[in-house]
Every structure is written in structure tokens, then in C-alpha cells.
From TrEMBL:
<dbReference type="InterPro" id="IPR002078">
    <property type="entry name" value="Sigma_54_int"/>
</dbReference>
<dbReference type="InterPro" id="IPR035965">
    <property type="entry name" value="PAS-like_dom_sf"/>
</dbReference>
<keyword id="KW-0805">Transcription regulation</keyword>
<keyword id="KW-0547">Nucleotide-binding</keyword>
<dbReference type="InterPro" id="IPR025944">
    <property type="entry name" value="Sigma_54_int_dom_CS"/>
</dbReference>
<dbReference type="InterPro" id="IPR003593">
    <property type="entry name" value="AAA+_ATPase"/>
</dbReference>
<dbReference type="Pfam" id="PF02954">
    <property type="entry name" value="HTH_8"/>
</dbReference>
<keyword id="KW-0067">ATP-binding</keyword>
<dbReference type="InterPro" id="IPR025943">
    <property type="entry name" value="Sigma_54_int_dom_ATP-bd_2"/>
</dbReference>
<feature type="domain" description="Sigma-54 factor interaction">
    <location>
        <begin position="122"/>
        <end position="350"/>
    </location>
</feature>
<dbReference type="InterPro" id="IPR009057">
    <property type="entry name" value="Homeodomain-like_sf"/>
</dbReference>
<dbReference type="Pfam" id="PF00158">
    <property type="entry name" value="Sigma54_activat"/>
</dbReference>
<protein>
    <submittedName>
        <fullName>Sigma-54 dependent transcriptional regulator</fullName>
    </submittedName>
</protein>
<dbReference type="Pfam" id="PF25601">
    <property type="entry name" value="AAA_lid_14"/>
</dbReference>
<dbReference type="InterPro" id="IPR002197">
    <property type="entry name" value="HTH_Fis"/>
</dbReference>
<dbReference type="InterPro" id="IPR058031">
    <property type="entry name" value="AAA_lid_NorR"/>
</dbReference>
<keyword id="KW-0238">DNA-binding</keyword>
Length: 434
């Protein structure tokens, strides 16, 4: 790995999603531990390898040409026999010496449930957690649509997997629909599939996520971000179990169990016309409140032990945490919930000496002054709150440097970034930059 990449590598373990860093030569610079766990590939076997099997279809190459962040749903090109698909988010990253890299996080959308498959680990012993887990088990025993409600980082995807693993659909696939990336142009093709030649670039027929989830569970993550114009199409498919591929004439059928999750107040969104009332009632038959971490502080020692055990790489010894460091963690409010706890411990493990985490190794995410808390953003219905992660911070710092350089002149900033002013405006809104 180049010396200049070490700063970026230090950020890898602060992400709970699989994260890969790619150089301008389209070769892999680094991957994090979550990548190794998700794809079963050791990082030393990936570093230095080409990022894509076929460079002519390489999504990463375009970012280095345009510096334009991207998000989308892609098929696994490394295994032609695999039906695995994933959502990807790519961002430009600048190292301390201004070297440009690409950072990309992945979320696997289809998870097979083989016989003997263990249910996702649900960690906790508090009274609040016990009530929550009982509620999830009750949801799994029904066939009613489940709506998981809770703040960002509380583990709603884990809860959805738990419902799936304890339901009648446990032998089927668990398929994730990331509603934050299903814009107008992606919705029908990704959800319902398309036929060959349906549009430019459709070189072959493709199954949609509905078909992939047949006899399994279809999990709509952040359902509140689904475009209003596409909501009637989803409602029809859920009501009838039937749909057509884009460019097709034959009616397709799929028998799926539906679980949805959101950190938004959908009832308030219905009142202001940002979410269809009929779809809301269709999806919220069995609501489940996912408790924030601050309401289950008794579970913190168990969660900390669990995450530290995941970080262990040596068979003989593991990470330990001092009493003062543990007290510091317990006293913190955890606005980012369990995801923030995990990221905090990953960073502490990278900073500590001799695998002993001290109080000084614990660093909490600094939030920008004046930024509304999550609860206030829910009430206002802001469409796309900024995720707090290192990749977004790098992009924000890069744009901020250009704002200072050109004294806020958007035309000059866009020209240096080689993007349109409209694209720059979207970036400024997404990153909360003035």
C-alpha cells in the first residue's frame, strides 16, 4: 500500500458496512474487516488487485473522471453464477497529501438462509430489551407486514433479519431494498426487473428484487425515503402480489413477506402529503418500536464485550477495556446509538496499546454546532439527513477548501471539480454546506 494511504486506512474500521478504498489506477488499496466478514475474502488477497473484473463496465472509473459521488444497485460481477446483488455508495476521498482515492461502501441485498442458519445475534438483558425482543418474536409469528420504527443506528436491519429468521419464510432469502437510492429512474427496474432491450444499457434480462425475494422476506430499509410518485406502484404490487418487468408484457408473481423500517414519522408525512395514506396503513399493520441505546444502558457492557470479541484477530488474546473507559462509555448519551458505539470501539481498538483500551482512547463523534438532532429532523420531514461518516466528512472538507479558495463562487468551484453547478448544489445540500 502506498505510504499516503495509511491515513485513509485508519478510517476503515470506523465503518460497520463493508468499505473498500480504490486508487486512481483502479486497483484496490485497502478494505475493512466488515468486508472480509461479508465476502469471506482476506484483505491481503485483495490489495493490489483490479477493482473490477471487466474494466469496460467499471463504475469506479467514472468517479475518477468526474469526481461525482454515486449510489446504485449492482450485480456481483465476480461470480457469473451468483444472484447476489448489493447497493453501493461511492465517494471521492482526499488524503492528507491531496492524493485522490475512491471510497465505496456496500450493502448486500440478498442473503440466503441455508438449513442450520443461525438467527442474528440479539445482545441484551435489560427489561427494555426483553420487551423489545418479545415484540419481534410476536411479529415473526404473524404474516402481517411489520414496520420497524426507531432512530438511526438502533439496529433495524438486524431486527428485520431476526423477524425473517423466526418466521415461516426462514428458508427463503432475505432481500434488502435500500429506499434511499431508489430514485425515479431506478425504482421499477430494480424492484420489478427488466427485459432485454427495455432501455439503453439493458443488454440482458434481469430479475428484480421482488422476484429474488420470492418465498422469502423483502425488507424495505428507510421506506420513508421512497419517492411519492413511486408509492402507488409499490402498493399495487403488495396488494396483488403481481407486477411486470420493465419492457415486458407477462405478469410475474412473487410471494413475499414484507418488513419495513424508517427513522421518520410516517404519520406526520401522511398529514403533509409526503407519504400515501393507503400505503402507510398497508405497511404498518404490526408496528415495532426499536429502543434507542440510551434507554437500555444496562446492555452496554454486553454490547461492548460483543463488539470487542468481533475485533479480536489473535486466538490467544483479545481486547480488554479499563474500568474508567467503560464508565466513560456508559455515561455518554449515544445519539448515534449502537452503530456509533461500534464505530467508537473500532477506533479505540486502533488507537490503544497492547490491546488495552484506556479512557484516553475513547473518542466520540463531534457533531456540527447548530445541526438539528435526529428527532427534530424527523418532525420537519427533511428528506435526506447527512449520514455522519468519515467519507462524507472528507468530501465536505474538500468542498469547503474550494469554497474558501474561490470565496463561495459556485461556478468556479464546479469547474474545478469538473461537475455541473446543479450537481454541486445537490452536494452542498446533502453535506449541509453554505
Amino acid at each position: 500500500m502506498p505510504q499516503s494511504a495509511f491515513t485513509l486506512e485508519s478510517l476503515l474500521e470506523t465503518h460497520d458496512l463493508p468499505l473498500i478504498i480504490i486508487g486512481a489506477d483502479l486497483r484496490i488499496v485497502a478494505v475493512n474487516r466488515a468486508w472480509e466478514h461479508s465476502f469471506g475474502v482476506m484483505r491481503q488477497n485483495l490489495v493490489g488487485q483490479p477493482c473490477c473484473v471487466e474494466n469496460r463496465n467499471c463504475r469506479h472509473q467514472r468517479l475518477f473522471q468526474t469526481l461525482e459521488a454515486y449510489a446504485g444497485i449492482f450485480a456481483d460481477s465476480s461470480d457469473a453464477s451468483s444472484l447476489r446483488s448489493f447497493s453501493a455508495r461511492g465517494f471521492p476521498l482526499l488524503d492528507a497529501d491531496a492524493t485522490l482515492y475512491l471510497g465505496e461502501t456496500l450493502t448486500v441485498l440478498k442473503k440466503s438462509a441455508a438449513k442450520g442458519h443461525e438467527a442474528p445475534a440479539m445482545i441484551g438483558k435489560s427489561a427494555v430489551f426483553a420487551q423489545y425482543k418479545t415484540r419481534l418474536q410476536q411479529a415473526a409469528d404473524t404474516q402481517a407486514p411489520v414496520l420497524l420504527l426507531g432512530e438511526t443506528g438502533t439496529g433495524k436491519e438486524l431486527a428485520a433479519e431476526f423477524v425473517h429468521s423466526h418466521s415461516r419464510q426462514a428458508d427463503g432469502d432475505f432481500v434488502i431494498v435500500d429506499c434511499t437510492i431508489l430514485g425515479e429512474e431506478l425504482f421499477e427496474s430494480e424492484l420489478f426487473g427488466h427485459e432485454k432491450g427495455a432501455f439503453t444499457g439493458a443488454t440482458s434480462a434481469k430479475k428484480g428484487l421482488f422476484e429474488l425475494a420470492n418465498n422469502g422476506t423483502l425488507f424495505f430499509d428507510e421506506i420513508g425515503d421512497l419517492p411519492l410518485s413511486q408509492q402507488p406502484k409499490l402498493l399495487r404490487a403488495l396488494e396483488s402480489g403481481q407486477f411486470r418487468r420493465v419492457g415486458g408484457t407477462a405478469m410475474q408473481k412473487a410471494n413475499v413477506r414484507v418488513v419495513c423500517a424508517t427513522h421518520r414519522n410516517l404519520a406526520d408525512m401522511v398529514k403533509v402529503g409526503r407519504f400515501r395514506e393507503d400505503l402507510f396503513y398497508r405497511l404498518s399493520v404490526f408496528p415495532v418500536e426499536v429502543p434507542p441505546l440510551r434507554q437500555r444502558r444496562q446492555d452496554l457492557p454486553l454490547l461492548i464485550d460483543h463488539f470487542l470479541a468481533q475485533l479480536n484477530t489473535d486466538a490467544d488474546s483479545g481486547y480488554a477495556i479499563t474500568q474508567s473507559a467503560l464508565i466513560k462509555l456508559i455515561q455518554y448519551a449515544w445519539p448515534g446509538n449502537i452503530r456509533e458505539l461500534r464505530n467508537c470501539l473500532q477506533l479505540a481498538a486502533g488507537l490503544c496499546k497492547d490491546k488495552s483500551i484506556q479512557e484516553a482512547d475513547i473518542h466520540f463523534m463531534q457533531r456540527q454546532a447548530g445541526v438539528e438532532p435526529a428527532a427534530a429532523r424527523e418532525a420537519s420531514g427533511d428528506a435526506h439527513p447527512l449520514p455522519i461518516n468519515s467519507m462524507a466528512q472528507f468530501e465536505a472538507e474538500f468542498i469547503n477548501s474550494l469554497i474558501s479558495k474561490y470565496q463561495g463562487n459556485r461556478k468556479l468551484i464546479a469547474a474545478e471539480m469538473n461537475i455541473s453547478e446543479r450537481t454541486l448544489y445537490r452536494k452542498l445540500n446533502r453535506l449541509n454546506l453554505n
